[in-house]
Amino acid sequence: MATSLRALSALTLSLTLTVTGLGGPARAAGSGASLPDLGLLRDGRTPAALTGGTAFRPGTAKTALTDGQYVVRLREAPVTSYAGGVDGLAPTKPAAGQDLEPHSAAAEKYRKHLGAAQRDVLGDLGVTARQTYTTAFNGFTAKLTGAQATELAKDPRVAAVSKAQVVKADAASFEKTGKSVAGAASAKPAPAPAKGSGVVVGVIDTGIWPESASFAATMKAPRGWHGTCQVGEGFPASACNGKIVGARYFADGWLAMAGALPDGEVLSARDMQGHGTHTASTAAGLPVPHAMVLGRDLGKISGVAPDAQIAVYKALWGGSGTDADIIAAIDAAVADGVDVINYSIGNAMGDYQANSPIGNAFLNAYLAGVFVAASAGNDGMSGMISNAEPWVTTVGAAVERANEATVRLGDGTKIVGASMDVLPSRARTPIVFADRAGSVEDGAQFCLGGSLDAAKVTGKIVACDFDSAAGAVQEVKAKGGVGVVLFQTNGNARLNVIYDFPTVYLWSTEQAGQIFNYLWAHRDDGTASLVTGGDGSSVAGLPSVAGLSSYGPDQVHTGLQKPDLVADGVDVVAAVSPMAGGRLFDAYSGTSMASPHVAGMAAILRAQHPGWSPGAVASALRTTAADTKATSSPLQQGSGLPTPARATDPGLVVEPSAESLTAFASAAAPDGKELNLPSIALREYDGLHPVRIIRKFTNVSGRTETYRARVEGLSGMDVSVNPKTFTVRPGVTATVTITLARGSATWDRYTTGSLVLSGNGHRVRVTVAARPWGFTPRPYDDTGIEFGRVSGLGSGYLEPGFTGPLTGRTTGYTPVKWSKKQLSTTVSGGAFAPGGVGTQGTKIVVPSGTAGLIVQTASDDPNLNLDLYLYKDGKLVERSWAFWHSNERVARFFPPPGVYTAYVHAQSTYTPDVPYEIGVTVVPQRAEEHNATISVPAQVERGGNGQVTLTPVGPQPDVQRWAYTEFRTGRTVVPGLLISDR
């Protein structure tokens, strides 16, 4: 959605698309450090990800495979999980509580066996491997024709064939600008007995900047370390000083796919991007006594586990990488002997397949005793979780500091946003919308480079529509402006950056509308002041889940709670590469920044409890985590916010067996509800029958303790726990059975809560999220938003979550009440705000007992673009803003009663008078219109396909109508669908 402050009389029919990168080469400034002369500077943005692929298992490859790079996994176990069975080859899988010996005689002998088997497969096919793997993954990558890939997929020696895919770093933004900043990770974990001494954290990322003060310590390699320091361009052996205990780089997969490294990259472990240095220093950076940021002393800051050592595995190039290189990095990290891996990398829009090659490699790393923390993704919506495997601790982002700043407009309006810059004063200053301060054709509304007119900007604050934030600030500064207000018309995420220039960032649609409407009313006399601080309204509470953080449930696996945890992920200050924008330290945001916090905590726990498995570490962090302020839903926060102080002594741990995880990985449709995890996730439970879940708790406290069970939350569910009280000795495991059944809980919507075990000094919490599956096909949102509830043409699709007889009932059709409206406006475009310019509201009263509320807009004008927003009690309920048309629709199933307001916003128009129609339908739940009959299947099967059909009775009016349907199986009534007759 673009914004414009051009009056209608000045509109043209042109459409200009402008793409820009960062301006000019970046240089380190103000650091006082001598940097290597690499001759390559980062310039531009992160490359767009290439297309991904799908895994095919032997005998199932029905889709035609095309030519390209493939990852091939063979059936034999890799070194990490080989339990024996081949004559003459001893097992290499470590025993419980033991470390993998990746370079033992048995391991090397088995590795040779795997290599020979790989060569046999390749030789039979007549191809050469690009990369081979044996430690955490048994397989290879190779360039294959579609026919060769299809042949391999049928080979009994092959477990899976996957088209190579590209993954990306999970930082919210790579845009940097300004001078150097001193500081390390801003994490300040609660005191714990150890800080990670003797533990190696492997960081798979964009590399590292070894000269940073965050890594300036000489340390000895820990016992059991087998890694190396791979020399490369601009990366000598001396870069590994012990704090950086090892470094490798992996580019074969990238080069095979892209042909060359991205501009500005070097073939070494040196970080030219900044992301890898940031995550490494967040997890295990050294303390910095005085973090000086643009002359401001932020005090002492530190990585989470400053005594841990760092092993670098560069597998991202320009911020993106291939799964082939990622697997090679995992394989090497496990062979080198890392204890923890941080993986701040993911797929756009979340995971799209279960049991991916990367996921399989991480499984084997887990089985070898390596804890893996990974980012959840930055899509900011449900069902878009990355790295959702049960053996990976998936981390969402939390806001732990507000960094508020206020834009005070001349009419007294206060808009609370955020800033990490020094704001000059409270004095009112002229403010101008960027669209009126330069060339629209050159992208003035976004403050693109060269677009602004210095005569119109000098001495003023400029309001810029967010596109390239760094470029906007540079342009305003270059043209004599004195401040910047950045706003997003379709945003929901905080993306603070230290600009070294007075800048306030506004991230919500409503905030964009506020400033837009003020500037439209005060085109020539607008004033504003930029003030540090705010009223706390920018966040729902501290800490809270960040708006950018992807949340659950996972769309690929059932029975898993994802994310597992949330951690500090917004405005995190840590070391970066100066090649990324001339800084040695910077503030980044994203789940990329959250994951290394948990990796660092895991390092602390591994140092304190070297015999704990990765599952025990994950359990300790999760069962002792605390709720965020704004939500306690495990679908958003997972188990909550962890701290090592609590997790060091959890009392009990609950962890899955290796056998159960291996079986999960081998399943065609994996379901994790039976895994012994510190959470219970029932995305699709049968609401007609009770569900019994078993969890096994092991006492790790060192003393006998009695625990009492209680249930918190889970409103509308009948829950029993057996036994309610139990006593468990040190090292002994107690089995607890939890029985859950739907009572009055709403069908197809989540109920959340937890099972709490309270002992003598310990509190163990297992979070629960349960959804009784009625007829909606797997909605992902925990509010039960109308995914799959609305249908047309007099029929609807049924996918029942239960088995049994079925009858149906309908209210009959309720006609849409259409009203002709005319919206008067003096602007085309702009940003929406309730009651603002170009906006008209319609009040809607929704009584109790309403089954559905449908609001629609319509217009025949092809040059008109309307957007629709539905509000209740001053809060946005839902919006519809499809690109470039006016036929919008919002629908709510069982809406709460009250007064709603539907706002229509003229996003684009070519006339000051905008005629349109708005249609409102309030469908009662109990009405009997007797103008339609219903037909449904007499019997349904769980997961089967069915159809409900409404047949009109009597005269058919020439107006659209909506009906509510519900169903009965036995004595149970299950809500159905909202169906339109056209």
TrEMBL record:
<dbReference type="InterPro" id="IPR023828">
    <property type="entry name" value="Peptidase_S8_Ser-AS"/>
</dbReference>
<dbReference type="GO" id="GO:0004252">
    <property type="term" value="F:serine-type endopeptidase activity"/>
</dbReference>
<feature type="active site" description="Charge relay system">
    <location>
        <position position="205"/>
    </location>
</feature>
<dbReference type="InterPro" id="IPR036852">
    <property type="entry name" value="Peptidase_S8/S53_dom_sf"/>
</dbReference>
<keyword id="KW-0645">Protease</keyword>
<dbReference type="InterPro" id="IPR045051">
    <property type="entry name" value="SBT"/>
</dbReference>
<dbReference type="InterPro" id="IPR010259">
    <property type="entry name" value="S8pro/Inhibitor_I9"/>
</dbReference>
<feature type="signal peptide">
    <location>
        <begin position="1"/>
        <end position="28"/>
    </location>
</feature>
<keyword id="KW-0732">Signal</keyword>
<feature type="domain" description="Subtilisin-like protease fibronectin type-III">
    <location>
        <begin position="674"/>
        <end position="769"/>
    </location>
</feature>
<dbReference type="Pfam" id="PF17766">
    <property type="entry name" value="fn3_6"/>
</dbReference>
<dbReference type="InterPro" id="IPR015500">
    <property type="entry name" value="Peptidase_S8_subtilisin-rel"/>
</dbReference>
<dbReference type="InterPro" id="IPR000209">
    <property type="entry name" value="Peptidase_S8/S53_dom"/>
</dbReference>
<dbReference type="Pfam" id="PF00082">
    <property type="entry name" value="Peptidase_S8"/>
</dbReference>
<feature type="domain" description="Inhibitor I9">
    <location>
        <begin position="70"/>
        <end position="169"/>
    </location>
</feature>
<feature type="compositionally biased region" description="Polar residues">
    <location>
        <begin position="623"/>
        <end position="640"/>
    </location>
</feature>
<feature type="active site" description="Charge relay system">
    <location>
        <position position="275"/>
    </location>
</feature>
<dbReference type="InterPro" id="IPR041469">
    <property type="entry name" value="Subtilisin-like_FN3"/>
</dbReference>
<keyword id="KW-0720">Serine protease</keyword>
<dbReference type="Pfam" id="PF05922">
    <property type="entry name" value="Inhibitor_I9"/>
</dbReference>
<feature type="region of interest" description="Disordered">
    <location>
        <begin position="623"/>
        <end position="647"/>
    </location>
</feature>
<dbReference type="GO" id="GO:0006508">
    <property type="term" value="P:proteolysis"/>
</dbReference>
<dbReference type="InterPro" id="IPR037045">
    <property type="entry name" value="S8pro/Inhibitor_I9_sf"/>
</dbReference>
<keyword id="KW-0378">Hydrolase</keyword>
<protein>
    <submittedName>
        <fullName>Peptidase inhibitor I9</fullName>
    </submittedName>
</protein>
<comment type="similarity">
    <text>Belongs to the peptidase S8 family.</text>
</comment>
<feature type="domain" description="Peptidase S8/S53">
    <location>
        <begin position="196"/>
        <end position="640"/>
    </location>
</feature>
<feature type="active site" description="Charge relay system">
    <location>
        <position position="592"/>
    </location>
</feature>
